[in-house]
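#struct-queue
[09:14] JT: dropping the first one here, sequence first, then the structure tokens:
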Amino acid sequence: MALNALACDYARMLGQVVAAVGTTVNAMEALSLQDMAQRVDRLVAFEAALTGYYIDIPPE
């Protein structure tokens, strides 16, 4: 049951990241790059907690 809730939360967070990327073309709804980076960081941390793996992607 808890795993199902975690998977739903993961899917919701992933959807937010995808939606944030999709709305950047609309200036009224666009998130700042910092907000998007924070959401991606949270998503990576959540995935690491869920799977036990953490992939460190250095900034360009």
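[09:21] JT: and here's the second one, same format:
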Amino acid sequence: MHLTVLARFVSSTGAEAAFFIGLWGKAAYEFDGTPTDLAIMSAIIGVAAMIGSVGGGALVDRFDARRVVIGAEVVFVPATLALILASDLPRLLALGTVVWLAGAVLETAITSLPPALVDDAGLDSANARLESANWLALVAGPALGGLMFPLVGFSGIFVFDAVTSLVALLLVLGINLPDRDAARAPADTLATGGPLDPVTDARPGPLADVLDGMRLAMTKPAIRLVLFLAALPSLAFGMFIALEPLFFRDVVGAPVETLGYVNAIFGVGLFAGSMWLERRDRQFTTFRNGVLVVMASGLGSVLYVATGDLRVVLIGAITWSIPLGIALPLSRTLAQRAAGPTHVGRVTGLIGTVSSGASLLPIVVAPVLAATLGIQRVLLAAGLLATVLAPLAWRAAAREDRVSAAAAPRSAPEGSTTEPTG
């Protein structure tokens, strides 16, 4: 599993540097992008992420996660280098769309690897470690990009992204997966029951794969619950994407570089949350704990914007990011267990699609709401939304936990880590 974790950290470090310094920086500073331009860019990113996530999930289940990671990296490298050629904002957006599509496929594929690499008992720890690598890259990538930019400019940042992707590709080539024909969904996984049995209900074609994954998600309460819990933090995130810079400018009265410092602290909190989960045993990974951490993240975001005092903002960044760092890998583990090995990619991709879609919705209404109610009130409401709505899922979460507890004694973990240890 360590090669997968390292590959994600290396690849994500370059991607975060290219996104925050390269793409956003080039759009805003070199091409003098307006708020409307950046909103359009955010919308394109969100749509590309939705399409790439659901498509990547279908590819994972049709081929395997390792092959899809390799293919996505092969596409990603020339696509990110092509950004050097963008001479205006429309060309940057057009070329960037390919990057964001490939990146979403890559994200879905690499986060679908743990169920193929470890047994069920190790899935909690594997997903937490994989997410910790991503959060650490969220801190390291922009920091390295900021240090490199005065020396190499925008072009050098995109080259750095391509190099890190090539390194990640070499690492993934060292991963061995078990024979796909030998993989069988355990008898108690949700994907094997009823009319959605992957053998008796198999249909040809990639679109059929996507539709089958959606049908599975809509008919299995456990997966629907995970999608609901994944959407709530994303709704708040979408509002913050649109309004957070204005909050720091108009409410906190802080200079622009403060955003970078606070987001670095936020990334550290996300990393700490995932690492905390990695050290817990499987008993913590329950649907009810999923509800609780989503509620806690909502309360943390409320504290984040509750005052204009920067000290309170910093405390809020920690109390928001730590439970959020727990929530994502926890939800992914619950969904992957519910999906079974035959539908892991499609269900993992749906989580990405739902999260991206949920973050897009607030971008549309944020300017109007902020003009009517004020920036701080809108952000407070966004945080409260998760806090208020998450408890509505408590009874469903308790029911799914009882189902899982009843099935656990009959589901002995099978398999072992198949990744080389050297």
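[09:30] RK: nice, looked through the second one.
[09:31] RK: Residues 182-203, 410-422 have pLDDT under 50 and may be disordered.
[09:31] JT: good to know. Residues 189-409 form a domain with the Growth Hormone; Chain: A; fold (CATH 1.20.1250.20).
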